[in-house]
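Researcher: Quick test of sequence recovery. Tokens follow.
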């Protein structure tokens, strides 16, 4: 791929280019890089330690009924959802579309003269701070950058000539193929760098720059320069980011119901999960502000360890709710992150499944401070089984994750990376985005089919919003206070299966009147039959 061409790429996703203001920050010195010998852990005063207790304790399993994590029931939170007695836009007019079609614009609040001085040491755990680069991994990476004339007796890598796999041809449609010849296959079967193979990494970095135009792209490393690393699915990235940031007792923010994989990764870490109310447009900034007002400006000035460390959110086509955050809300939330000095974890596997253009500007695109960690996934668009995703964020933090990868998975499968990299080099950004257009078209048609089936069978029995992205319809069953029994005990007999909403609550034993229906795999005929069966089931239960 040649020089990044930001305007061209942004135009492709339907966004008008702006002349991005580039303020040069003066960040505090950060953490040692993964590829450099690690320095001693930060002074104890800078490290996070479990505090005496949160100001607003809402432990993972201990939230009280009626607590903040019942967003849909908060007065004034959401306009009436679709369903009986309510009007809704047709399937081609997602209700949230109007507010999501804004082109990139500077934040509504006065633009900051200069970014915040980020002290990354403040956010990381003692364990993460103590990670050092593995000397063997460093040698491997050095060797891979050396000319072929180098005679290395250093590596502990096996000889690939003894491996049975010699070459591969993977058909990719339209009569084309990804070819992995003998030499490339030897690389594909070999150990590789923990951050990712160089050609894929550089493709991804260019892509992120072109797509999101992050302010941090040209910062110095210590200032929070945008860094990318390949992960074994976005789940690996998320899990390692959580482990890098969370000490027991830490306060963190998220908008539940949320992805059960995130909750499962968070719960054992012993953090206090504070639920931020949301509606079909995502987190409600006013509600977030109210929660944050618990902490004073003194707390912020003194870097109180009670301050929430990060906000986690799924900004597009949220799993399970299908909610998507509007641009205006993102801007407001980013300003609150600046005011209360917390990080934002933008888990965005459904970014490429947005049904309307322009695609929503990301938190990464607004990140003047270097406080956004973004997880991307190839799972919904190239393959979920190949297990590949990528992390983007400030270098001092991404480097910590890479140190963790060095001693756990070592790296994402080199074979997988070579296959993906060959495909992306062949397609280029244009070809990749054309593929995305085809994927989106498929999911839009699927969503529409599900909405038609829902209208036909569930109109008087349930409520829902048409999702603007993703693969899920979040359905509230009227008159059923908990769908757990309905689904787990009775639905199978009727030969229909959905996920009971409780699975996505912070406290999974808390009742939920919702179910999650996925429109990814079923045909329109199957959706129709499934909702007919669900309707029968509900009628019997009432
Ligand atoms: C919100 C969310 N985050 C992360 C993941 C994990 O995806 P991956 O396959 O990239 O690990 C999923 C998977 O469904 C998801 O829905």
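Model:
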């Amino acid at each position: 791929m040649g020089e990044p061409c930001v305007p061209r790429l942004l135009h492709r996703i339907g966004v008008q280019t702006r002349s991005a203001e580039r303020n040069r920050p003066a960040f505090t010195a950060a953490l040692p890089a993964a590829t450099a010998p690690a320095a001693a852990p930060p002074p104890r005063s800078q490290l996070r330690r479990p505090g005496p207790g949160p100001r607003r304790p809402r432990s993972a399993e201990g939230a009280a009924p009626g607590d903040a994590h019942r967003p849909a029931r908060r007065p004034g939170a959401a306009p009436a959802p679709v369903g009986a007695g309510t009007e809704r836009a047709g399937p081609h007019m997602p209700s949230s579309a109007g507010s999501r079609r804004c082109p990139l614009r500077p934040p509504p609040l006065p633009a900051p003269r200069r970014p915040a001085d980020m002290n990354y040491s403040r956010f990381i755990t003692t364990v993460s701070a103590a990670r050092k680069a593995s000397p063997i991994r460093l040698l491997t990476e050095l060797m891979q950058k050396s000319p072929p004339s180098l005679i290395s007796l250093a590596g502990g890598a096996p000889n690939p000539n003894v491996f049975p796999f010699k070459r591969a041809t993977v058909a990719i449609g339209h009569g084309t193929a990804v070819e992995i010849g003998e030499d490339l296959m030897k690389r594909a079967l070999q150990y590789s760098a923990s951050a990712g193979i160089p050609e894929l990494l550089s493709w991804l970095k260019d892509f992120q720059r072109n797509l999101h135009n992050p302010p941090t792209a040209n910062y110095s490393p210590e200032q929070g320069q945008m860094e990318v690393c390949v992960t074994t699915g976005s789940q690996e990235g998320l899990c390692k980011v959580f482990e890098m940031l969370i000490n027991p007792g830490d306060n963190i923010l998220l908008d539940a119901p949320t992805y059960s994989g995130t909750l499962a990764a968070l719960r054992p870490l012993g953090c206090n999960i504070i639920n931020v109310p949301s509606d079909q447009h995502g987190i409600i900034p006013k509600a977030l502000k109210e929660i944050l007002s618990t902490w004073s400006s003194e707390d912020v000035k003194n870097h109180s360890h009670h301050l929430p460390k990060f906000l986690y959110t799924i900004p597009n086509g949220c799993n399970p709710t299908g909610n998507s955050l509007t641009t205006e809300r993102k801007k407001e939330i980013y300003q609150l992150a600046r005011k209360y000095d917390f990080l934002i974890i933008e888990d965005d596997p459904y970014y490429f499944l947005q049904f309307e253009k322009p695609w929503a500007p990301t938190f990464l695109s607004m990140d003047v401070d270097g406080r956004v960690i973004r997880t991307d996934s190839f799972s919904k668009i190239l393959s979920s089984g190949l297990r590949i995703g990528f992390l983007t964020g400030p270098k001092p933090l991404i480097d910590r994750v890479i140190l963790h990868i060095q001693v756990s998975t070592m790296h994402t499968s080199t074979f997988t990376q070579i296959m993906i990299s060959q495909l992306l080099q062949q397609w280029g950004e244009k070809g990749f985005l054309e593929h995305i257009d085809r994927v989106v078209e498929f999911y839009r048609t699927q969503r529409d089919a599900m909405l038609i089936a829902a209208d036909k069978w569930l109109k008087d029995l349930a409520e829902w919003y048409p999702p603007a992205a993703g693969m899920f319809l979040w359905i509230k069953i009227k008159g059923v206070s908990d769908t757990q029994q309905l689904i787990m005990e009775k639905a199978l007999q009727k030969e229909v299966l959905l996920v009971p909403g409780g699975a996505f609550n912070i406290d999974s034993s808390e009742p939920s009147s919702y179910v999650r229906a996925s429109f990814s795999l079923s045909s329109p005929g199957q959706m129709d039959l499934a909702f007919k069966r669900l309707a029968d089931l509900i009628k019997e239960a009432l």
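Residues 438-540 form a domain with the Aspartate Aminotransferase, domain 1 fold (CATH 3.90.1150.10).
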